[in-house]
Amino acid sequence: MDKTYSEEQIKYLSLLSQKFPTIQSVCTEIINLEAILNLPKGTEHFLTDIHGEYDTFSHILRNASGVVRRKIDQVFGHTISEKSKKLLATLIYYPEEKLEIVTKTIDDLDNWYSVILRRLVYVARACADKYTRSKVRKAMPAEYAYIIDELLNENPEKKEQYYDRIINTIIEIDRANHFIIALSKFIQRLTIDKLHIIGDVYDRGPYPDKVMDTLMQYHNVDIQWGNHDILWMGAAAGIKSCIATVVRISARYDNLDTLEDAYGINLLPLATFAMKKYNKDACSCFMPKISSTDNYDSLNIKLLSQMHKAIAIIEFKLEGQIVQRNPEFNMDSRLLLDKINYKKGIITINGIEYPLKDNYFPTIDPKDPYKLCQEEEELMEKLKFSFLNSQNLQKHIKLFFSKGSMYLKHNSNLLFHSSIPLNADGTFKSIKIEGAEYYGKSLCDKFETVTRRAYLNRWQQGANIQDYDYVWYLWCGPCSPLFGKDQMTTFERYFIEDEKTHKEHLDPYYNYRDNKETCKMILHEFGLDPAVSHIINGHVPVKVKKGESPIKADGMLLVIDGGMSKPYQKVTGIAGYTLMYDSYSLILIEHAPFVSPQIAIENELDIVSSRSLVTRKSDRIKVGDTDIGVELKQQISDLKMLLDAYREGMIKVKG
Asked: What phi and psi, each to the nearest 5 degrees, are found at residue 218?
């Protein structure tokens, strides 16, 4: 009996036939996709809260949180020494740097090359065994693709002379170093199929730009926005409040070089303004957090402090303007400049008077404290111009929009940086945006839409200023899924000694995240099955030193911020968590502090890591069980429909 096709189906199948013009091409693709469904799922790698710590981040990527070393152990067992394994691992992590050292110390270099090349091929073969040959070929460096393909897929025992001739020729023609580098990077790429960054690439650490450069080159990555990321995204959109905050935090952590050298932001106008307005001020409350004063004289530190204070005051003014024009934000507690008695040097908060540690405010008009003076207005226009026209910054921020989102659902895992806002009773907290109420998933979706719109319209005159205000709100608003607190007490921490005023209360989400019913509610809200799904967060460092566990709600929720950022390591006692999800298990990895790449290379030292099993499947997870598998099954269904249409004469065979 002939099948009937709708007009829409015929149109779709006609388009599909352009890619698969013959019955044979359709059959070949169906066979290929059906086979792929039965391959093991690729390994996923989860990192969060990098905060510019490029060296640690880079090493964890290179060693794949210990997976590379485990592959070496699996391949060689006890057949080679521990020293040889360490050398091989370091060579895979840092091939260029390690080769430069080793090649100067080895007497019989040709023999060493011969042994190392074979060992690298064995490791590469073990890493490639879960992928199709087509996918492996695509991962190969183009200049050596044919040779690597031959070495991976030829049995050296059956074609010993052929295999040996390839290795020996590489050495004879002086390409061994190049080939080792290419093979090492090929192994790094094969080890991880997909990388998830769960927010906060920026702030505190010195090299967020290098992290972003690495992510731009990574073969398969997604990013869930963090509150520090949204701040830089807002700054790149020309939002002045975000720009002021980015500059303040950079000054606070002595990272102004990142702005000037990496992104070409002109800070001379700020320095000139700060020296003029705060020349008589010690700015003692605004001393930058620097690990050592060896590279600074007193004048440099004083200038940094002046710039720090100058931009902080501007930030407080701009934030006050946003709060005043958006009463629905419910952030009146952040309106503090009008609560200051400038003559007495005191501030009144909730009816209590507090003395100010610093009462020098040369740019604040007590009658209109949130208004920028003329020079501050001019300064912010110059900074806005620099941020909008920084090609490197714009390139990096565009990655957040092309590869990023507020949250991600992937292979039964729900990834978001901070929290899903909840009320005190554990129900979803809602907020009104553009006249409608949003909560849970709809709130995240709405915030993402507004953020994308704000960035895309950054050059438009008369763009919706409320979009810009909501981007800033995501940084520090009480119902922001990226922030997760009731307020950000930045002013109080600078100016008030009494630490009771510094208190920031976490969203009720953090009281309920160890509750299985709450996790089930959130997973249902995002359309996931709680029986097989997990929530994965970062944002709030796990206080391991105080006995806190990153595994919440009997394994339904995992917090993997363990302190990759060095300022947090005193609190956490470790140097971060990462998560691995391979074809068998979901594994939490705890990392000890990383010293430096140089020491790792010279002494062949790896990050000391410990692994904790979160879940393990009795049967190996296949591609067909993943989100990609769902897509492939739909493609197979469409191809079978096209095959039937060809055979029934409904679609013309093209060749």
From this structure: -70, 145
Yes or no: say if 231 and 202 are a contact pair by the CB < 8 Å rule. Answer: yes
pTM score, whole prediction: 0.93
Q: Identify whether the C-beta of residue 68 lies closer than 8 Å to the C-beta of residue 93.
A: yes
The residue type found at 621 is: I
The residue type of 87 is L
Alpha-carbon gap, residue 38 to 51, rounded angstroms: 38
For 592, other C-beta atoms within 10 Å of its C-beta total: 15
Give the CB-side neighbour count of residue 386, counting CA atoms within 13 A. Answer: 23
DSSP state of 194: E
Report whether 506 contacts 362 (CB < 8 A): no
- How far is the C-alpha of 129 from the C-alpha of 125, rounded, in Å? 6
At position 290, the amino acid (one-letter code) is: I
Which of helix, strand or coil describes residue 191? helix
pLDDT in tens, 459-516: 987 668 899 999 999 999 999 999 999 999 999 999 999 999 999 999 999 999 999 9
Which 3 state secondary structure label does DSSP give 177?
A: helix
Q: Any bridge partners for residue 580, and if so which?
A: 45, 587
Which tokens in the block code for residue 386?
């620099």
pLDDT (tens digit per residue) in 281-301: 989 999 998 765 556 667 788
Residue partners of 428: CB distance under 8 A and separation at least 6: 420, 421, 422, 439, 440, 525
* Single-letter code of the amino acid located at 211: V
Q: Which helix (H) or strand (E) holds 112?
A: helix 109-128
Q: Are 364 and 337 in contact (CB under 8 A)?
A: yes
Cβ pair 199, 538 in contact under 8 A: yes
Q: Count Cα neighbours of 127 within 13 Å in the Cβ-side half-sphere.
A: 31
Q: With contact defined as beta carbons under 8 Å apart, do 502 and 489 qualify? A: yes
Mean per-residue pLDDT, 9-38: 94
CB-CB contact of 25 with 16 (8 Å): no
DSSP for 383-406, please give it.
HHHHHHT-HHHHHHHHHHHHSEES
In angstroms, the CA 624 to CA 234 distance is 39
Q: Residue 194 is encoded by which pair of tokens?
A: 């997909």
Q: Considering only CA atoms, which of 370, 388, 397 is closest in space to residue 228?
A: 397
Q: Measured between alpha carbons, how far is 580 from 588 in angstroms, rounded to an integer? A: 6
Burial (CB count <10 Å: 0-12, 13-18, 19+), residue 298: exposed
Residue 296: predicted pLDDT? 62
Burial class (CB in 10 A: 0-12, 13-18, 19+), 613: exposed
Single-letter code of the amino acid located at 370: Y
Which residues make Cβ contacts (< 8 Å) with residue 521, sequence separation at least 6? 426
Q: CA nearest 270: which of 399, 383, 424, 135? A: 383
Q: How far apart are CA 474 and CA 482, in angstroms?
A: 6
The bridge status of strand 44-47 relative to strand 340-341 is unpaired
Q: Are 645 and 5 in contact (CB under 8 A)?
A: yes
Residue 89: φ, ψ to 5°? -65, -45
- The answer to whether the beta carbons of residues 468 and 239 sit under 8 Å apart is yes
Name residue 223's beta-bridge partners. Answer: 197, 404
**Locate tokens 């303040």: which residue?**
248
| CA proximity to 70, closest of 616, 611, 603 | 611
Main-chain dihedrals φ then ψ at residue 338, nearest 5 degrees? -85, 0
Length of the chain: 655
